[in-house]
Each structure stands twice: as C-alpha cells, then as structure tokens.
Specification:
The structure is a single chain. This protein has about 260 residues and is α+β, with helices and mostly antiparallel strands. The protein contains eleven helices and five strands; from the N terminus they run ααααββαβαααααββα. The chain has helices at about 1-30, 35-55, 55-85, 85-90, 115-130, 145-160, 165-175, 185-195, 200-205, 210-225, 245-260; strands at about 95-100, 105-110, 135-140, 230-235, 235-240. It is elongated.
Length: about 260
C-alpha cells in the first residue's frame, strides 16, 4: 500500500506539472494576441478548473512532496551523524555503559527533570540486560531550566571521581528516584551517597572540562535538530521521544541482522 500511495503521489505531482505545461501550450498556439496578464489569468483558470474537478490530484501531490522533504531531512540527519561521529560516539566527556567494546551503539540525550526520561529509564536498563553487545552512551542535555543545568554539571563533574558502574547507580537514583524538581542540592545529595568528595565535586562543576562537555552536547543537538528529551541515536538513525524498549530493541536487532535499523 505504501508503494502504491507513493507511486500515485508521483503521478499526481507529474500531472500538476503536465497541466501547467498543457495550459501554457494551449495559449502558445492561440492565434489571438495574448498579453502576459491575460496569459497568467487563463492558465490559472485552466488549473483551477482541473483541480476542482480532480481534488485528489493536489492532495496526492502534496503528500508526495511531504514524503520527499522528509526523506531529504532524514538523509541530512544521517550525514550529520556521520560527520559528528567522533563527538557522538568517542567523546572524552561522555559516560559509556553496557559493553564498552560493544559493536551495537545507542546514544541517549536526557534531562534529569524530563518526565519521559524517567519513564524510559527502565527501557535502557532492560536493553542493556538483553543485549550483551550493546554500548550505551549517555549525553546530558539539560533543556528544562537552570535546575537541569545544575544537575547536569554535578553529573559531569562526578565522572571524574567514580567509575561507570557507580555513575549508573547515581544516574538511576537521581533520574528515577526524584519525584520533585531536580537541581544542584538534589544532585549533590545523591552524589555524596555515591561516595563523591563534595569539595572537589563543586570545584569541578565550574571547570573548563564540564563547560566544554555540555557545550559539545548542545552543539551536537543543534546540528542534529534535537530540541527535546529523550532523544536517541541508534546506529545512524535519530529516534525522538520515549518510544519504548520494544521499538528500540527492534532497531538494535536489525542493526545486528543487516547493519541498518530497518532491514526492509
């Protein structure tokens, strides 16, 4: 059905173009003297009459145009992912969970105050359990206000003191255990429970490394057109929203099977 719709859309788009050419051709063969103004009016009248009698033509043409635009945008995003590959997959500022040498890679952009990120936390945990070859990269993407920025600064500074396993415990507790707004105070309290040296942590929050790390994520997100959380990169595909473990697992399985997130 998708193929038929696409074919119909292309035919409709061609029909509109052909109609324009047809209208102009009629006028060109007309023996009467035609000024540019009358020519335009006559062509518009021909087109209007045809479209009123065949409304599906315009609908199909617009749908085909939308499909074409979406395909172009998807290609642009995939090219951007490839261009930014070192910053996305190998940044010195990122946290890597799961299998650090895994061939299947999943990146999550998250905000500690994002309700959908909280709901998606169990999805990430399940995916790591079910896929021993999965390399997970977490990107702090604080878009929900000053509290989110402070929590992200704490998290990035904490990476200097603890290993990925401890960071995952911190991440789960701060993202999954906080019912109210999360800011500096809440993040510091959870970091202290994880064994952080708070004096060093607060100094590191203002460090050039933390600023550079957050800046890098913001630059990646802007280039890829991301403006909300959670957002994922699976292979080279961008997935926006809390789509659920099942959909992400399908893409992971396809990557393993054919090297792409869609094996059609």
């Amino acid at each position: 059905m998708r193929f038929l719709d696409s074919t119909a859309g292309k035919i409709a788009a061609f029909a509109v173009v052909a109609l324009l050419a047809f209208g102009v051709g009629i006028l060109a063969r007309s023996p009467a003297v035609v000024t540019p103004t009358t020519e335009r009016a006559q062509v518009e009248a021909i087109i209007k009459d045809y479209l009123l009698k065949n409304p599906d033509v315009m609908r199909l043409a617009l749908e085909e145009m939308e499909r074409h635009t979406q395909a172009q945008e998807e290609t642009r995003k995939q090219e951007s992912v490839a261009k930014l590959s070192p910053q996305i997959f190998q940044s010195k500022y990122q946290t890597v969970l799961g299998n650090p040498d895994g061939k299947i890679q999943l990146v999550e952009f998250f905000d500690y105050n994002c309700g959908y990120c909280k709901r998606a936390l169990n999805d990430l945990s399940q995916l790591m359990k079910d896929n021993p070859d999965l390399r997970v990269i977490l990107k702090e993407f604080p878009v929900l206000g000053p509290g989110s920025v402070e929590a992200a600064q704490v998290a990035m500074a904490l990476k200097k003191q603890i290993d990925p396993a401890k960071y995952w415990e911190f991440h789960q507790k701060l993202l999954g255990g906080s019912r109210g707004p999360v800011g500096k105070a809440q993040a510091l309290a959870v970091a202290e429970e994880a064994g952080a040296n708070l004096d060093r942590l607060q100094a590191d929050m203002a460090s050039a490394d933390v600023r550079a790390g957050l800046g890098e994520v913001m630059n990646i997100a802007e280039t890829l057109g991301l403006n909300g959380t959670p957002s994922y990169i699976v292979g080279s595909e961008i997935v926006v929203g809390a789509v659920g473990a099942e959909k992400l697992q399908d893409k992971i399985s396809n990557l393993r099977k054919c090297g792409k997130t869609d094996c059609i």
